[in-house]
Structure prediction request, 856 residues.
Amino acid sequence: MQIATQGKEVHKQRDSAPRAQRDTIRGSNESKQQPVIPAWHCSQESKSGSPFKVEEQTSLIYVSSVVKSYRMDTAKKKIHPFFRTEVRAEEHKAAGEEQTQAVQDEEENEEAETGREDESRVQNETAGRLAKICPSDISKSTSEAPAQPQLAQYPRTQQGDRNRSFKGEWYAVHPWLEYSVCEDSAFCYACRHFSLPGHVESTFTAGLGFRNWKKATYTDGGFAAHSRSEHHKDAMLAWKEFQLAEKNQGSVMEQLNQNYNKIVEENRGYIKTLAEVVLHCATQNIALRGHRESMDLSRKGNFLGTLDIIARHDEKVGKKMNGPRNAKYTSPDIQNEILSCLAEMVRISIIKEVKESGAFSILVDETKDKKKMEQMSFVLRYYYNGEIHESFLEFEVAEALDAESLSLKIIRLLQRYGLDYKNNLVGQAYDGAAVMSGKKSGVQARIKEVANVAFYVHCSAHCLNLVLVDTVKGLPEADCFFSLLQQLYTYMSGSAVHSKWLNVQKEMYSGDAPRELQALSDTRWASRYNACRNLWDRLPAVVKVLEDLAEENSGERSIGARGLLPQINLQFIVFLAIFKKLLGDAKMLSNLLQSSSLDLAKAVDLVETLIDTFQSYKTEQVFGDLWDTVLELAKQCDISIDAAPKRKRKLSAQLQGYHVLSTVGSHDMGNDKDYYRTAIFNLVLDRMLSELRSRFSRQNCEIMRGIQALNPNSTSFCDKNTLFAFAKMYGCHLVDLEHELHQVKRLLDRKVKQGMQTPHTIVDLTAFIEPYQEVFDVFARLCKIALALPVSTAACERSFSCLKLVKTHLRTTMGEGRLSDLGVLSIEHRRAASLNLDEFVDRFAANHKNRRIQLL
Prediction:
């Protein structure tokens, strides 16, 4: 009520007074309402001239300091001019219904009319005051530091009984000091720029400044008295807060950005931790989830259990794990998203290398998983960065196994990854099944219809396996030998017999660890070498076990021993020695053919080497050494080396009374050694050599001859006619190739003379040519094609080994996408380990759309 009455009196007095007096009254009234802006504040106004539009940092610091001053003044019952409008608003609110709406409207109109005039007046007064009190050689605004020049000798003036001057060491005692050389006077930096509105001017802020050096260090005057003043303390407080805000980048927007960036950084670190745990489980072929997935259970899956261990040692991870349930990012769906993102990054790196290489082959094979589903494995072979790569892409379920469906699946896979299979697919490798290798309507024929240069290669490892299979099937005695070998393994693996088998080995071979007989593999015949080797080394122990069990009256065990024991005779030992020797050489070739770094030229050389080796075994000396080992082992086993007497064959009744000059079916070898050499050893060798030459015959193939012409160790190296035929098949420019061949030979000869080691393989030659690829474009492409041509599908077989570890009988419900992603991360574990997790988080955030937490 009092405020309303005062307002009416003021308006009444103003209306009744003359015009000049009304302006005075209005000015005095508005001076109580309009805040007075300090000099430092006005110096940073915007171009619009509004005293409230100042730099963000300065205004925040100023308001903070003024609020503190306002609280101090309020406690002393003094209202600061700057907050007089705010206080009045609070008083109006406290008055409630007593303050009339008319008074409010009238005051608002007065403020709108006079606001611009007061703003201009404050600016003019401030500018004049600054021009008056600021010498030219001290700070002009808060953006400048205090002017504290260090002089060798300051100007001296007569004060009292001596000449006195300013001292440079006073800066350390009073850091607010500023010294003007032109005026030879001191000023207060804090009071000049950070004084509160309505402060009283002093010699440290106005006029010529303080220059009474005699009283400068007095305890009750000079610098000390100014430091104790109330307005100087307020100014110093505002200055310190301003410095702190500048140091911490204290603008509101910057602080918000800092907080946001901090949250994003924590979230990205948490997602990286999740990715590392998923990657670890995938590369180690262990299940991520358990039987029950709950944070309350003490026994969780590998994923949650590993995160719990990490959370105990990482506060940030622990905070996220104990946070909102919908922002933990540990659900199965999120795990699948992380797996998919990581696997996609691996595939992208593979496809990038394939495209840069320019020539590639595809390797495909299929097998059944634990769920009896046909899983197809896709592998790409290419040359990149000095090495041959065979990189796994994915598993896919084959819904149909006919040639049309399989070929369409292969083409769609290549299209999905954006590969130019029509021009750059130079090879395809499958097993020898008719649906894959058919010349008319097989998969390889259908692929070649759309990719004309996709040369089909029957897996060399499968070819070698078929050589051994056909060799054994062509000899009934050899087939019976391997059947007996499998029967021995089955019998010795029985629970009652096995314990006795181990005890006998400990007695007879006390210095060696007990060995186990090996089961025979129907798909990898070269691995039968291990079965023959182990049985050869432990045959005396096998014979002793069978003899002991045959003497026992233990039912089926004794009957089985009595049935097996007579079959272990001299002929059995001869077959064991022969196949131990031959399968050992074949196994070495099989291992080399399964190498991903092997090229076709080297594979042909290895096959030719094996053929030459087998050919050299057909001498009497080789079989003589073999026969000596047979006799020695027969002696250890107490097996008779004398041939059993055969019943003389009875002559036909039609020949009675005639003198027979030729044999009629009965033959007497006389010497068992010659019989086993000619009837068994040489027969096995001849059969195996015939199969090798038949299945690995490449002499009439232009592609194989072209590859040999790129082999530095070949006699046809850089042969013009051979390479022209090879280049013509792949659409290369023959004129350019002719010029490049001449230059390649000259460059190679010059580098060898300069001390470079001569290339020995196509890989070495390609690595040598690669820096000059722009010059030898056609020749370099032919080298890459030769290296990209497949040798075997062993990479697909290795992926099936991983499939058995990933999709176990406990994980048969796994989705096909998850299975393929886990397979990529497990098989390509080296690539997965080198992934950039920051790039992963960016990709994950883009795919995930940041539904719960911010990652970008």
